[in-house]
Design brief:
Layout (H helix, E strand, L loop, with lengths): L1 H6 L5 H30 L6 H26 L5 H18 L19 H14 L3 E6 L2 E6 L3 E2 L2 E2 L4 H13 L1
Antiparallel strand pairs: 1-2, 3-4
Helix pairs in contact: 2-3, 3-5, 3-6, 5-6
């Protein structure tokens, strides 16, 4: 359809891409909203509207980031098989080095986490759920309450501006 429209000089490529992406966004977001509505309350995450809203925004940013990455990877490859293979390798590397599965990444590969959507999404979701909360530890018969001191598994739970900025930069940069 694009080739036919281009050959007839109906509209520019940029207009086509803007309209296509704008019309696809609602369809891309409906299933994640339904999934989040079910899972968020089923696993009893932080029960405030603000936490749910920020979690939803984080998921939206991640979806748009991956959509842009898919378009950026699909552009230089002529064959679907090559693009799919390269995308699988890239996403797998992002998942492995993003900090969720492996915390102690070797130093010569640690730079990959900073271009990984998974790393920034994971940190944002940690900050949304655990910022300023207390946790009760059960130690046998006694239980004690302690503050997180803004650290969860070595991750600082402070301002989220860096992660949001990185994800927005990846949307524009890719």
């Amino acid at each position: 359809m694009l080739v036919k429209s281009q050959s007839m000089d109906m509209y520019k490529l940029s207009a086509y891409l803007v309209i296509r992406n704008t019309s696809d966004i609602p369809l891309d977001l409906i299933l994640p909203i339904l999934f989040l509505l079910i899972v968020y309350f089923m696993v009893e995450l932080k029960s405030s509207f603000l936490a749910f809203f920020f979690t939803l925004l984080t998921i939206f940013l991640t979806i748009i980031d991956f959509k842009v990455l898919g378009l950026a990877i699909g552009e230089p490859f002529m064959g679907v098989k090559k693009a799919t293979t390269f995308t699988s390798i890239t996403v797998m590397a992002f998942m492995l080095f993003g900090g969720f599965f492996i915390q102690n990444v070797p130093s010569f590969m640690s730079w990959i986490r900073y271009i990984s959507f998974n790393y920034h999404t994971y940190r944002l979701l940690l900050k949304i759920q655990y910022k300023g909360s207390t946790t009760t530890l059960s130690l046998g018969a006694s239980s004690s309450s302690y503050e997180h001191h803004n650290i969860i598994k070595g991750e600082r739970v402070e301002s989220s501006g860096i992660e949001v900025g990185a994800m927005l930069f990846m949307i524009i940069g890719y």
